[in-house]
Amino acid sequence: MNIGTFLNETAAIEKNIETIHANIARIQSLQSNILVATSTNEVDAISHERNRLMGDTRQLLIENKDRIKQIEYENAKLPKSDPNYGLRTQRHGFLREKLSNILNEYRGAEDGYIKHQTERTIRQYKIVNPNATQQEIDDYMSSPSGQPVFQQALLRTGEARDVLDQVKKRHNDIKRVEETVAELAELFKELYLQVEAQDQTIVNIEGNATETATKLEKANEDLGKARLSAAAARKKKWICLAIILIILIIIAAVVAYEIVKSRNQK
């Protein structure tokens, strides 16, 4: 990815994060309206819009988490000597932090909504069963429609049936939002766990590069020594050869002299 493509990609991700932030603000507003809605139809209409927006936001979060991860992988391939290395790592860190802040903000908002919905549901339960124990409340929150107190009330009044219907919807809503919170926590974990793993990869790459450079330097040093040794050996060989030739010449001269001297004496 060249620097122009890289900058376009980071700008697109940043724009998407702003869209996610706006979506979260809208989701919070819709959930506030759900909490104060006075009719089932109103709750259903608001919940429908909220659920659609939550689905869109979920897709954006996953998509942009993956795109930030891809940038990280691309950066890991670059040597630190690359002229754009600093810019690339700075932009990656900025986007990672911005997305993680959004995840935390969204998770906090959903935790608050779950708390308010749970409190309202418990209040409704206590209207039907004012003497409820904490164990009964806990059992009710885990499975509201299966509680005997509501089954008995259903036989008495139509109003109880309406309350039970609302309770079921709130219970399902709480479960849906709890799943969203769990997924947000997982996305946050993935974002940083993958970064840590990649950081370790970078460390390993740098360590291997340093080790390779050290070995290469040592090999060059040994090769230099070998070349010097070879040159010295060749020099010694030529010196020895020259000495041998000189000795042979001297011997030949002495032999020739003795032969000539012997002939003259005859």
TrEMBL record:
Keywords: Membrane, Transmembrane, Transmembrane helix
Cellular component annotations (GO), alphabetically ordered: endomembrane system; plasma membrane; SNARE complex
PROSITE patterns associated with the record: T_SNARE
Keyword Transit peptide: no
Subcellular location: Membrane
Database matches in SUPFAM superfamilies: t-snare proteins
Protein known as: t-SNARE
